[in-house]
Amino acid sequence: MDIMIINGPNLNMLGQRQPEIYGHETLGDIEAKCRAEAEALGLTIGWFQSNHEGELVTAIQEARETARAIAINAAAYTHTSIALYDALSMFEGPKVELHLSHVHARESFRHHSMISGVVTGVIAGFGSSSYKLAIHALSDILKS
Ligand code: CA2
After folding, report:
1. Distance CA 3, CA 132 (A)
2. CA of 75 to the centre of ligand 1 (A)
3. 76 CA: nearest ligand 1 atom
4. Rounded percentage of the chain residues whose pLDDT exceeds 70
5. Please, what are the domains in the chain?
6. pTM over 0.85
7. Torsion over CA: 26, 85, 64, 131 (sign)
């Protein structure tokens, strides 16, 4: 596939709580939008969500064999996970860290990302459009 999209803990709860921060769409709604966006760009995507850090590590490792690029919303593990940092550092293709919310305008513990240093770029604060922007950024790199 072209882009593996990986989602971290609690994102399966989207649309059910805190719509003022994360919007009204469910993760399934966002997946459908990503699939449509990718198809329009002539790209194939994979989609994965887990609440477990090790499963996210495994998904990144598997992407080394199956995907040309990664887009990841690591959710709370963004701020804590050396394991995700290490796994992402082994993936050689382009990688985007993305967030629905503007993490730098929120609590100070969300200002630091463990993984920003090993990704190609970061997109945050555009709601579900952050996923669309990540797909477009990776599309441009893959086609260049
Ligand atoms: O803004 C983002 O996309 C985040 O990655 C979302 C994470 C948060 O820990 C990061 O700092 C920023 C939280 C995802 C939890 O999603 C919820 C869904 C429904 C209700 C409450 C939380």
Report:
1. 12
2. 5
3. 9
4. 100
5. 3-143 (3.40.50.9100)
6. yes
7. positive
